[in-house]
Amino acid sequence: MKKRIILLLLILSILFIIAFSETKNKNNKSETPYRIAFIRMKEGGQFWASMRNGARDARTATSSVLDFYSTMETLDINEQIKYINQAINDNVDGIVITPCDNEQLVAPLEKASSMGIKIIQLYNEVNYSDKINSIKLMSNTLNMGHDIANFYVNDYKEVVRNALIIANTNHITSSNYMIDGISRVFKSEKIKYNVLYLTGDSNNSQYQLKVYLESHSEVDSILALDDYCSECSVYVTPLFNKDYYIMATGHSLLNIQNLDNGNIDSILVVNSYAMGYQSVIGMVAILNTQKFSKTKLDYIFVTRENMFDENVQKELFSLL
Amino acid sequence: MKEESPKIDTIFSKFLIVFTIAIVFMVSAIIVFNYYINIKSNIEILSKQTVSKTSDTVATYMEAIMQMGNATENYVSNPSLYSDEEIKIRLSSMIDSRSDIMTIDFFDSHGNVIAGTTDKNLRPAVEICSQNWFVRALAGNGNSYFSSPHVQQLLILRYPWVLSYSKKINYTDNNDDLKQGIILIDIKYEKIKELIESIDIGTGGYLYIIDNDGKLVIHPKQTLINANLFSEDLSNNNEKIYGSFNVNYNGQNKFVDIQTIDWTRWRVVGVVPIGAMITVGIKSFVIIILIVLLLSLALTIFIGRFLSNIITSPIRHLEKEMEAIDIINTTPRQLEKGSYEVKALSHSFVEMSKRIRSLMDEIVSEQEQKRKSELDALQAKINPHFLYNTLDSVIWLADAGDDEGVIKLVSALAKLFRISISKGHEIITLEEEVEHVRNYLIIQQMRYVDKFTYNIEIPDNLRHKPTIKLILQPIVENSIYHGIKYLMDPGIINIKVEEAGNDIKIHISDNGIGMDNETRLSLLIVDKNQHIKDGNGIGVYNVNKRLQLKYGEKYGLKIESEIEEGTHVIITLPNDKDIPSIKAKQI
Is pLDDT at A278 greater than 50 in this prediction? Predict the structure, then answer.
């Protein structure tokens, strides 16, 4: 009889503990909510702002704490390294990062991983290291590169086409994968193309593009793979008395207005809001040791003709 | 004796614990069920009230917008009353008075602005008149039209999110020609979205607005929906159209209430994840119930032990008394403590003990009496024959003038009877028993002159050993009458007493004619009537039975015999402590 009573008390105690632990886990409203460092490549720009908004909404949904970090310049590697170390010192539970360099950020992320910090590499990724225990989210942009090239082929119907692909640096994997995807299609379609990596500040980049276009008069179309490169294109191409086909990236007001007035022919709008949202939801799931389903990159191609379509305007003007 | 601590394994404790658990569970189940019903009902009522209130608020808001449209119509429909500048001032003042209105404009049927707050950087008329709000209003018959949120395309390079109110009106132009125009009032989407989002419909609940076609107009999770990170169950809304219903969408149980907004044919939809809300409530409640259950159990065990101790203590005391009491030798005491029932039980036990003891005494007495009667009957059976024959021998000796013989015979007879009587004692010494049989042999030897001789051996250390009396005489009698009597030559009877371990063995042997095996076995058979019928062997049977009754089955007679060789009877007795002889007792 005594054994039975002890067993009964034990069962009730376990039920009691389970009931409490379940409540705590599902709501994630413990006294110490998860703290996540959210490190973006850049502060400015619609792409990064939209990503931040997505992360913020996910923070509300998960009751987690986000430390937002972003560099003023796209390629400020040292600043990103500083942010990672800051996150380590702050003893965060997880780091969501869009690495601005695939080589130099390996060591800091290895260090973070060795400290038991969960890592999600968002959109970009660093070179493989078995010391980094991370999840890569929406970082494979190869298919997006395919789609960019195919859209270009269908939308720019000139017989002879000579494209210039503009990217920021060859150390950003999202651009590299996109270029790889575009190249494959272009090669199969026998479209001439070249890749230009813009470096330095905005003035330098514009100058670099201007010099290139001056010396390569055969170029008739520009594919800018990020909002920074798109901005350069918008500023530089009017200097030439030539009707370039321009495909910009990002739904910045500048890009939209240039699309509206015909300076840009098409815009690739990547749903960076979904990136920010999914990455934080995913990080909380990982910290709760739950599974989460990765979503694919969401993007649309916008032209002047469809920019006010009901479904398109929801994505194109989402930040306005 | 140390008092045993009260056990939890008592009927009362078991009953108390089981009863408590059952009651707590039952009450908990009822309360949880009622709580579930109440919380569900309350959530549904509150949700309906909130949706209804929101519907009224939005309707009021829309009515206000329509009144603004009517006022605008009043201004623009009759240019003779108001100049363009006056119209612009009045419309601007309406916008200034409200932060939610972006523009109020009036267009002709070709998309050219006639009056309003927007007059610079307008898009070409052809673009304006192709827009949905314009097309729908123009196609209508003067009804008000509210658009879904959209990016307004009035101004070049400006892309505000608005809800558009548009209405076709008739107006008279400067040439007094009656024409059709469109009034446009753009409402800032952000403002109306804030209005909807500010309404609290409970944890996890939200409100949204759908248009007549079931398409989303305003939704608090519009960004997530745009990013395909959230989906709304719009198909159910179109099926149900109006009212309340429960629905399971994406594995989540939701309570949905739909109410139509006046003037617009839009509908407000309130969604409450009732399952999750109830689960949270029930979970909290179950935690409380579990705490109550644990405390109740602890309290029950404590009370159970305490009360059990009070109630069962007298019973346990009685139990110990019952275990310890020797009913045969002592009388149990009546319990003075305890409840009435326990005292009654104690009284019954005492009475029962007395009755058992009385019955046992009666049985012992009866058995003793019965045994004595049997012995008396036996002795009574022996004595008359023997006495007759002996007295006959005395007469015979007297006739022969053998005085010495008479003296010897009468003397032996006297000793024989004296030992037989033994002052009523059942147990005598072996010496006395041997003396008894010796006297018997003397008497029989005088009756059967020269017929037999005898020899008796008894060690000194066994002389005072106890035995039941008259065990040798019947055997010797049997030897004489059935063994030696028929011999041609003188017979010999040997009696020898010896110690055999913890027992004493008495050997009575003769050289008589012996007996066959059947006769030998029949001497000790149980059927007493058979002996009586045959007229022999009853003495031997009685001796054996008396010995076994007194000392147990292990003791008694053993008979060995062989035809023409003789018979050997062995009596086995326990080797008990010495006792004084009857004679010594007399002294």
Answer: yes
The whole-number average pLDDT for the span A52-66 is 93
Stretch A137-161: mean pLDDT, rounded?
92
Please name the helix (run of DSSP H) or strand (run of DSSP E) that holds residue B466, with its range, or none: strand B466-468
pLDDT, greater one: B378 or A160: A160
- Residue A35, H or E segment: strand A35-40
- pLDDT reported for residue A303: 96
Looking at the complex, report in whole angstroms how far the Cα of residue B217 sits from the nearest Cα belonging to chain A: 12
**Residue A20: pLDDT over 60:** no
Class of domain A142-271+303-316: alpha beta
DSSP B249: E
pLDDT at A225 over 90: yes
Distance separating the N- and C-terminal Cα atoms of chain A? 72
3-state secondary structure of B152: coil
Segments making up each domain of chain A, as ranges: 31-139+272-295, 142-271+303-316
CATH number at residue B538: 3.30.565.10
- Name the amino acid, one letter, at B3: E
Output the domain CATH number for residue B181. Answer: 3.30.450.20
Q: Which chain A residues have a beta carbon less than 8 Å from that of B283?
A: 19, 22-23
Q: What is the pLDDT of residue B525?
A: 74
| Domain end position, chosen among B250, B274, B298 | B274
What is the mean pLDDT of the segment spanning B348-373?
80
Residue-wise burial string across B85-105, b where 16 or more C-beta atoms lie within 10 A, e elsewhere: eebbebbeebbeeeebbbbbb
Length of chain B measured in residues: 587
Taking CA atoms, B376 is separated from B4, B79, B319, B474, B483, in Å, by 56, 158, 46, 15, 27
Residue B535 predicted with pLDDT over 70: no
Amino acid at B318: L
Question: By C-alpha distance, which of A169, A8, A206 is closest to A75?
Answer: A169
pLDDT for residue B13: 64
The mean-pLDDT minimum among A152-156, A190-194, B259-263 falls in: B259-263
In a domain, B295, yes or no: no
Is pLDDT above 70 for B134?
Answer: yes
> Which chain B residue has its CA at the smallest distance from A261's CA?
B157
CB A246 within 8 A of CB A265: yes
Q: Identify the CA nearest to A284 among candidates A109, A68, A28, A69.
A: A28
Give the bridge partners for A119, in sequence order. Answer: A95, A134
CATH class of residue range A31-139+272-295: alpha beta
Contacts of A290 (CB under 8 A, 6+ apart): none
ipTM: 0.82
CA-based R_g, chain B, Å = 65
Does the pLDDT value for residue B3 go beyond 50? Answer: no
Tell me phi and psi for residue B158, to 5 degrees: -125, 140
Least confident of A109-113, B143-147, B306-310, B451-455: B306-310
User: For residues B205 and B271, is the Cβ–Cβ distance under 8 A?
Assistant: yes
As for how many domains chain B has, the answer is 2
- Arithmetic mean of pLDDT, B80-100: 87
Residue-range definition of the domain harbouring residue B555: 362-586
Chain B residues 209-248 with a CB less than 8 Å from chain A: 222-224, 226-229
For chain A, percent of residues with pLDDT exceeding 90: 67
DSSP at B155: B
Last residue of a domain, one of B216, B245, B274: B274
| Interface probe, candidates B11, B25, B228, B290, chain A, greatest A C-beta count within 10 A | B290
B161 touches A: beta carbon within 8 Å = yes
Q: How many CB atoms lie within 10 A of CB B533?
A: 10
Using alpha carbons only, give the angle B110, B111, B115 rounded to the nearest 5 degrees: 115
